[in-house]
Structures are given as C-alpha cells and as structure tokens.
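User: Predict the structure for this protein chain, please.
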Amino acid sequence: MKEFIKSIRDTLGSLSRRFGLASLPMFFTALVFLDYAFRWVYAGAAGGTRLLSLKPMAFTGCWALLITCLIALLPRLGRRIAMGALGVFFAFLVVLHGVMYNVFGHFFSFADMNFAGDGAKFFSWTYFRLPKKMYFFVLVFLLMVAAAMVLAQKPKAAGRRLWLRRGCALALVPLCLLGLGFTHQRLMPEESYVMTWDASVDQDAVVYRSFTDTNRSMKLTGLYQYTARNFAVSFGIGTDARSAEELTEIFESRVLPAANEFSGSLRGKNLMLVMLESIDTWMARPEYMPNFCRLMDEGVEFTDFYTPLFLSAGTFNTEIITQTGLVPPAVGMPNSGYSTNAFPLSLANLFKGEGYRVNSFHPASPGIYSRGSIHENLGFEKYHSYTDMGMDDYQLDSQMLRDFDSMTAGGSFYTYIITYSGHGPYTEEMGNIAAPHLEKARRAVEESGVTSTPENMEEYTRAVAHAMETDQFIGGLMDRLEESELLKDTALLFYADHYGKYMSDKEFIAQLKGVRAGTPELYHTPCVLVGAGLEPVKVDKTVCSLDVAPTIADLFGLDAPLNYYAGESVFSPGEGLVPFPNGGWYDGETYFTGGEGAQTGEDHRAAELIQRVETSMEAVRTDYFRSWGK
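Assistant: Here is the predicted structure, written as structure tokens:
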C-alpha cells in the first residue's frame, strides 16, 4: 500500500512539474466555463440578454481573472485549499440556483435566507430534478478544478517563476477591479428611482439598480457579479432610501376613483378571509373540488385574478400583501421587521377599530415564519395553531373545524384562515394528507383525460388528493355557517396564496393550466366572494392579491385612506393592471417587461403602478407607518 501511495505521489509530482504552469489558467477556464454552462442551460429563463452579450462577458471575465490572480498570490497549499473551497462553493451555488428555479421559477437570492429555515421544513428530493446536462457541467467544472489543484506547483523559495507569477497577479488585480467598476457604473442609471416604461430608457440599467428580478439580473451579469451584487442589495448595502416626506408626497399625490355602487355594501357584516394553500385553477374542477366549484357558481367569482410573488416564501408573500395592502420588499429587510414594524392600515387593525373580534387560524406552529408574533403585530387578538384548534394531525384541513366556535365567537368577527393541506411535495413524504382521498383521486384522474409521464401522473394524483382534503374543509365550513344561521351575515373571500408550484415538472404545470411557462397566466389563481346575501356574478376585470385589502376596506366601509394601499378596489371603474416583481405589468392581454414593444397609451398607468409598488416596498422597509398620521 505504501508503494502504491508513493507511486501516486510521484505521478502527481511529475504532472505538477511538467504541466504546473497550466494550473492557474485551468482554474480561470473552469470559472468561465461554469458561468457560461449555467446560463446556457437556463437560457429559457426570463430575461432577454444574449449568452455572449458583452456585459455578462465583461463581468465574468473580470471576476474569473480577479479570483485567479488572488489565488496566485498564495503558496501551493493555500492555492489548493482556495481552489477546492471556491470550486465546491460555486458548484453548490449553481445547484442551489437550479433548485430554486425548479421550485419557484426564479434563481436564489440572499434575501431568501430570511425564510430558509421555515422553507427547509418542506424539503423534498424531488426538487433536485434538474436538467441532467446541468449536473454534467457541474461535474466537468469540479474535475477541472481538481486538475488545477493537482497541477499547482511548489515554487522554489526565491525562484524567478514565483516572483513573476506574483508580480503579474498583482499587476492584473487593479485592472480587474477597474473593469468591474467600469461595467458596474455603465449599468447604473443616473436617477436613484426609475419610474417609467419609456422604451428609450435603458431597461438593463433599471433591472441592474433594483436587482430584484433575479432571472433577468443573472442573465445580465453572470454568476459571479450576480452573487456579489445580490448580496449587497439583499442586505441593503449601499442602497438609497427615500425620506418619510417624499413617501408621503407620493402617497398623497395619488388620485383615487370616487366611491362605486358597491362601496359600503357589506358594512357591519362578518368577514372570513380564507387563503387556500396551493389551490390552483387546474385543481378547481367539480370532480376534484365540488364544494369549491359550487361556491364559484353561487358567488362573486373573480375570473381573472392573479397572485404575483414578490418573495420566494409564496404563502408569506400573499399573507402580508392581503392583510396589509402593502408589498413586502424582496430585499433589504429581515423577517423580524414584520413583527416590529407598524401596520395601522392592516385589515385586523381596521376591523378591530370597528369593534370586531379579530383572530387568525392556521395549523402550523406559531414559530413558522414567526406567525405568532407577526399576526399579533398585525392586530390579531390571537393566532390559533393546530394545538389551539385541537387537531390530531396539523396537516389535515378538515380538522380545523374542531375550533369553529372560536372562529365565529364574539358578535361581529373578522376571521383569517390559512389552509395547509394543499402544500407539497406531492409524494409519500406527505402521504397522510393524500391517504383519505387517494383512491377517489385516482378514479377522478383516470376519468379526467390528463396524460403525462408516470412520475408526473403520480404527483398529479396526489396533488388532487391534497386538494380534496382542502375541499372537505370548505364544504364543512359552509355547512357549519349555514347550520348556525351565520351565513346570511357573513361574507367569505376564498383565494389562493400562489399557483400550484410544488409539481416537479414546471412544463407540466403550464400544460395543466393551458398556458406557456414564464407567462403571467401561470400566476392566474381562483378567487371567489360568497355569503352575506351576495348574488352570483362573474367579474372579468384583471385584478390581483394587491387589490384584496383595499377591496375589503371599500366593501365594508372601513376608515382607511385607500391611496396608501398598493392596489385598488376591484369594483373601482376602469381596467385592472397587475404588477410583477420583474418590473413588468399585465392587463389581461398585454404582458410588458421593458424594452421595445411598450405601448405609449399604457406608459402613464404602468409608471404609476410601479411607483405604487416601489413606494409600498420602501414604506415597509423603512417602517414608514410608525410615525404616520402623527
């Protein structure tokens, strides 16, 4: 064995002496290769920057050379350790980006770490079903890094090569920094805030400054500049902040439409807001969810409703938006801010001001997403978890009805409910949700006409079984309200937290929804308002989750200045407009994300919309409402 080890050492030493000069060029090439391979595999991600565009080429070349030069200054052992550590880090980062894109449709951001601990509780190996060529390229990259480590030479103490290598490296470092700084500055717009959809404006600069659209930012900058700038933006390093006076001026300058025929029509009624976990349009079929479909036939259905995701934590994203009417900032704010910031215009605070009992109900423990403290901070009297509701299995929505009396107690009430059973992954890992409905789901799926691979169909069937459990809760809730004679005085708004994103095959999701992947129709979700004597009607206006809070405030005649909300009442006159976190907008027909193709007639509306969204984010991030009204 000793002889064998000695022979390996001799062989490696021989390779190092003969090809040692190739070590650093090999590592540089590996870094460039990984970036280009990664962006090539995900060429279909949103963003129009070409693979060989000058901007990502400049960033990647400068970063790869800078890292290589810094490593060149180290002794051989240090070089090997640095190469190995960086190689593993970047390989891991690329896989992480792939997993995030697989689950959420966007690349990883350091801002996602605010929710990493809670999101990890729903981990599944199915999320690692990345394109095989991506794993192949990662393996090639690691082999190249390993080769560079093996070939690293041990220079003589005062050898000419040592001083030549270090001298060249030291000379190149400032040139690399100059190249990075120059390219960075070229992309920074002159104005701190760009509120325009004018096609003449450099949209790359708009994307680069905000850096909240991870897909376009990755395409624009490449892996290494993306990592550095995303870190800075995510933690608010070097970012500008508007003053409270500037925010007030923007809020107050907004012109709102006059009251409509529905304004105050539900004044004095009870309200239940029911956010449905992962219930997508393709689940809302009579054979899968008969109770929910019956409500869509009997209530006020919003047929063109969307749930844009500004945070990777999709449920928390829509939770904050619909309860506060504000948009959570994607970057620059820790999760703890939602437990301490002031939210005087939250629905819970507004209804409490009207003398209502206000409580929230969700099976998850209070520590998940810090809901216990956050809901209390939003104005709820109590957050009721599965233990409070007496549930044996916190994943079964139907068991929440055990605490129906608490949901409707105390005269006038505002009750906020978040279901759980629609959550993924749709595998045996959450088989207890599917089990009570699995056979029924298999029969319904067989008759549905949906076809795909065996793996997709198994996931699909289990997803249907999950939806059936949620539907059982919906049916039970409506029955209990009817039996207790509360339905005539209680309005219920059912809406989804996000589309059914937990299916592994994203193309299959698009197929189920009858849309193209990457289009706004992917975020189309069901929404219906029922009870309180409301007549059946279909509302075809394009609306979204940002409109929930102002709509409720409008319908119930709550004392709230609607110009401070990011959305508007769905019953306001005029066409609706949905914002997306990539800076785009959708009006039901046109989806615009910047660049050529802007319609001049939409410029004003779109600019006003993005101003609302960005001002709302800034207000949350800076705790603007702490001193509001004083």
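The first strand starts at residue 270 and ends at 276.
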